[in-house]
Design brief:
heterodimer, A: alpha+beta, OB fold (Dihydrolipoamide Acetyltransferase, E2P), Rossmann fold, nine-stranded mixed sheet, six-stranded antiparallel beta barrel, 27 strands, B: alpha/beta, 3 domains, 12 helices
């Protein structure tokens, strides 16, 4: 085991002189007066290892002994992670004593005593490799697969497997042998280095299915694919976190992992308080039962902030290999980038734009690439859909983190200050935002088959109307209400109709907060039928009141249960109002 | 400070810059305190046997033979009940002529609260200012800054908020306060007869700028004592955080760190978050609420300081001079309290959210009507009425010198609705109309 002694300290960067081999990203423990402080090697220069400490370094002195562990930062994986609240290093926060976080206190992410009902899936003689299923245990409502550890990449033969019965995670549930006859005894626990992607799958095709989020401006206009990536940049106060929360509440996923990365503690408390109360419409259980929260709030040590997104991704990959649909949300990836900047700065590396490290775009795109839809070795499918938020400095979308993310993510949901100021929520800008998936033939085919035959062209037409409406509005502003043809007013108000009925959504209303695809289809086709109609107006002054009337009726429809008598009543009212002025 | 036995004393400096010095020393802990020629300093970097210290009072006149005494501990504050009613400097030493405070010695800038041990903030803080209570309600455990231009009366408003809020302790952290403002706070607290609830840590413009770095942590450490040990509701006032950030950039500059946006250190977000996140609601009833001031240059909120602050705090308040009534108001458009949703309509009357939104919508209509008027267009009857409404609303509700409780604010707003508008124009839910719209 390599040992070392502390030679220098700058904030949480600690230089250690080592007496043997060390590797990049190796974990070591600094023994500060009996308290072990975890640190990660981030640079090696001769005999000096530069380490970032995951804790405060207050009081640390030169000469302190350090022990290296010969492994990288790892997550401990096994049944019992659902509903847990972890910090960035996967310590179970609920197991910690006291009001305050204690330096050097690390807690077990899993529970050794808990008994699980194990059902074997593999048979003696089966040939398996890392990620293949040995058996399953029920974890909440998920059939949690116990797998051959991902690190075992060779072919192994099952020598024995435990019978149906109750076991703890420490009990041996299988013995497998490699081709040389070496035996490996496996329990339900495995470890994985978080910085490396799990590759225990057969194939990663282009995503082709759409992941419903219940948020109309996303699902209808710019859908995200299952296994896809998206990001939400926006200045403060535009509703990034509210939008992410609302996606997490309603998304069509088996499992939600929320990485609260360097954000406000009170926002995490909101998740702690709300999720155990909220009903999950898919399972009828509480939302918390399909959620794992990784939280490193902004006041927690900065190096652990960087680790938190990797911890969350590794846990997501673990559950994906069980054949589950995982939704991973990270709020906010800018804080992670800032953590990288702080360290790069302390190591006196030559800076890139705005002081960020030069390899920021590479780091960001490597991370986004870990999401995706996969065919597992047994031909089952699993997916990680990843949505990150970005907090651009000064609301400027040209800053390095936004630019780097834009290159990596396929969906872009731009939150606009202007929309937020005029209380048009969610403040996703319909012009600037895009979904590359809408251009995928596979996705178009899926939508046209599963939503409605001409769905994609209808959506594109709706986008055109929005764009034309904006152009007309600009003209009206320049030339005045009576300086433009009547049709400009009509065009503008048709775009307002789509904006206010389809795009805007009340995240706090029990009905409106989540719209199933079937209903989204119904509403969009209804609104488009109005947009396609021609109406008779004498003067421009008639246009606004008429459309406002239509909009108000449609919003009442949005608030009513789908297919309810109220819904039908408002719709009849709408058709009647449309008929009043419709020419063709 | 007097020397004690076993303290390490060195007398050979290798390097002196405007804010830091280096000395060869061994066995020194990171962030440890020391004195250099009697001036307080803190260890910021250790490389082998070279220790770099930042000298809070500046390095003017420091010689290479200066005497350096290490204390073997980071900055601390002695906390006890006796802090109440006292004024201290950035080091926690009394400046009011009183005796030193005895008590338990606590390291400042201590650990963070475990997020799962926090409670969701749910108690409304009433200030009597409608721009806050009605439109941007404050909640215990919240952190919120005033984004103000230097010429605005932010310190006066903050003192008013502090005195009206029903807090058990009010802790002032003054950074780069002008001596006049310091005396203003002192007199305001004395005149209000609340000295027993006040604690102040003050660094004035007469003191060295780097000292400011200690002030917020001193104030927040005292706050944690009262909130955790005594379960008290503590209100912390930090003014002016922009000057705190400037001090951070001075030190990082002297340490040859690469600056990021607007010459601020790359760690600005983390540094600010460490302070603001001390705002907390504890399960046993104690709480720390932070109201800060961030002065802007030319109203620019995209500058790194207000920008990073905005991402950390739970909303922001803007002051504005309303020229129609010649009084200062809390700007109803740009101000935001993110936590108000947790209390309005729940801890206040049920019609609060609707009345608030409707009044702001009408106030916005008035702003549009005003633009129309200024551009020489004809005003409609509705325009005339919203303009009159807006003037009354500013005068009777928003003006900062109005001091009424929330129920009264709501009733007054209802009266104005009835005076100028029809039921349809107001458009509030029927259940509230029935109760409050009495002809």
């Amino acid at each position: 085991m390599t040992k070392g002694i502390v030679k220098g300290i700058i904030a949480n960067l600690v230089m250690v002189e080592v007496d043997g081999p060390v590797s990049q990203n190796e974990i070591c423990y600094i023994d500060h007066k009996g308290v072990k402080l975890m640190a990660e090697v981030i640079k090696i220069l001769g005999k000096i290892a530069y380490t970032q400490v995951f804790e405060s370094t207050r009081g640390l002195t030169v000469g302190t002994p350090v022990e290296f562990t010969e492994h990288m930062l790892e997550v401990k994986l096994g049944p019992g992670m659902l509903s847990k609240n972890y910090d960035g290093l996967q310590d179970d926060l609920n197991k910690m004593d006291g009001l305050f976080l204690i330096r050097g206190e690390y807690t077990d992410p899993l529970d050794d005593d808990k008994v699980w009902r194990f059902t074997p899936l593999a048979k003696v003689g089966d040939v398996l490799t890392g990620g293949d299923w040995l058996g399953e245990v029920p974890e909440s409502w998920i059939a949690h697969k116990i797998m051959v550890p991902f690190v075992m990449e060779e072919q192994y033969t099952v020598k024995s497997i435990a019978a149906l019965g109750d076991y703890t995670i420490q009990d041996i549930i299988a013995v497998i042998t490699d081709k040389d006859g070496n035996e490996f005894k496996l329990n339900m626990i495995q470890r994985w280095p978080v910085k490396l992607p799990v590759r225990a799958y057969k194939q990663k095709p282009r995503p082709f299915r759409v992941m419903e989020t219940g948020v109309r401006t996303i699902d209808t206009l710019n859908p995200i694919a299952e296994g896809g990536t998206g990001f939400i940049p926006g200045p403060f106060g535009c509703g990034k976190t509210v939008l992410q929360h609302s996606i997490s509440k309603n998304a069509d996923a088996d499992l939600i992992i929320v990485a609260a990365c360097g954000e406000r503690a009170n926002e995490v408390v909101e998740l702690f308080v709300e999720f155990p109360e909220l009903d999950d419409p898919r399972t009828g259980r509480k939302l918390m039962e399909r959620t794992i929260i990784i939280c490193n709030t902004s006041n927690m040590p900065v190096a652990a902030r960087e680790a938190s997104v990797y911890t969350a991704m590794s846990i997501a990959e673990y559950y994906r290999t069980m054949g589950l649909k995982v939704l991973l949300l990270a709020d906010s990836t800018s804080r992670w980038a800032q953590a990288l900047r702080e360290m790069s700065n302390r190591m006196e590396e030559l800076p890139g734009p705005d002081g960020f490290p030069m390899d920021l775009p590479a780091i960001v795109s490597n991370f986004y690439a870990r999401a995706g839809f996969v065919y597992l070795n047994n031909d089952q499918t699993g997916s990680i859909t990843f949505i990150g938020t970005v907090s651009p400095a000064g609301g400027n979308l040209k800053e390095p983190v936004t630019e780097s993310t834009k290159k990596a993510a396929r969906c872009f949901y731009a939150l606009s200050q202007q929309r937020a100021d005029s209380k048009r929520y969610p403040a996703v800008d319909p012009m600037d935002s895009y979904s590359k998936y809408l251009e995928y033939e596979e996705v178009q085919e899926y939508l046209n088959k599963n939503v409605s035959p001409n769905w994609v062209s209808t959506v594109i037409r709706a986008k055109d109307i929005l764009l034309r409406g904006k152009e007309s509005y600009d003209q009206i502003n320049i030339l005045g209400d009576d300086g433009v043809p009547l049709s400009y007013h009509d065009k503008f108000w048709k775009s307002e109709l789509i904006d206010r009925v389809i795009l805007q959504q009340d995240g706090f209303d029990p009905v409106d907060q989540s719209t199933p695809m079937k209903r989204q289809r119904y509403m969009l086709e209804l609104i488009m039928s109005i947009c396609d109609a021609e109406f008779a107006f004498e003067t421009f002054e008639e246009v606004m009141p008429y459309y406002v009337q239509l909009i108000n009726i449609c919003r009442q429809m949005n608030y009513a249960e789908f297919d309810s008598p109220d819904f039908a009543k408002y719709e009849a009212n709408l058709q009647q109002t449309v008929a009043e002025r419709k020419v063709k | 400070m007097a020397t004690q036995a076993f303290q390490k004393i060195y007398t050979k400096l290798n390097q002196v810059t405007k804010a830091t010095c280096s000395v060869s020393a061994t066995g020194i802990g990171n962030e440890e305190l020391a004195t250099v020629s009697g001036r307080l300093a803190q260890v910021v970097k250790i490389m082998n046997d070279s220790v770099t210290l930042q000298i809070f009072a500046g390095t003017e006149g420091i010689g290479t033979d200066a005497e350096i005494i290490f204390f073997g501990k980071p900055p601390t504050l002695k906390v006890s009940e006796h802090l109440a009613g006292r004024f201290f400097d950035a080091y926690g030493d009394p400046i009011d002529g009183g005796p030193k405070v005895e008590g338990e010695e606590v390291e400042i800038g201590g650990p963070s609260v475990n997020p799962v041990r926090r409670k969701q903030p749910s108690e409304l803080i009433a200030t009597g200012i409608a721009g806050i209570d009605l439109n941007n309600t404050l909640v215990t455990g919240q952190k919120i800054p005033f984004f103000a231009d230097p010429d605005q009366p932010f310190n006066q408003v903050m003192a008013m908020v502090a005195l009206r809020a029903k807090a058990d302790k009010i802790i002032l952290g003054g950074m780069g306060l002008s001596n006049d403002d310091y005396l203003f706070f002192k007199h305001a607290f004395e005149n209000a007869g609340v000295m027993d609830r006040i604690i102040a840590f003050v660094n004035t413009t007469e003191n060295p700028p780097v000292e400011r770095l200690l002030v917020p942590n001193m104030a927040l450490t005292a706050a944690e004592y009262f909130a955790v040990e005594k379960n008290e509701k503590v209100l912390v006032l930090l003014t002016d955080m922009t000057l705190y950030c400037d001090a951070l950039s001075i030190v990082s500059n002297r340490m040859d760190q690469i600056p990021s946006k607007d010459s601020m250190p790359g760690s600005l977000y983390s540094e600010l978050a460490k302070l603001y996140e001390k705002a907390v609601q504890f399960p046993d009833g104690g709480s720390i609420t932070i109201i800060a001031v961030t002065t802007l240059s030319g109203g620019d909120i995209t500058h790194a300081i207000p920008d990073n602050t905005g991402y950390i705090t739970e909303g922001q308040l803007y002051l504005r001079r309303d020229t129609d009534i010649s009084k200062v108001i809390v700007d109803p458009f740009r101000s935001l309290s993110r936590l108000k949703q947790l209390v309005i309509g729940k801890k206040s009357r049920a019609d609060h959210p609707q009345v608030m939104n409707t009044a702001i919508r009408l106030y916005a209509d008035a702003a549009n009507a005003k633009t129309k008027m200024e551009n020489g267009f004809d005003l409609s009857d509705y325009d005339e009425r919203v303009l009159k409404f807006a003037t009354d609303y500013s005068m009777e509700i928003l003006a900062i010198d109005v001091n009424i409780d929330i129920d009264k604010m709501l009733d007054t707003t209802w009266d104005l609705f009835k005076k100028y508008f029809t039921k349809a124009e107001v458009g509030i839910k029927d259940e509230f109309m029935k109760i409050h719209w009495v002809e």
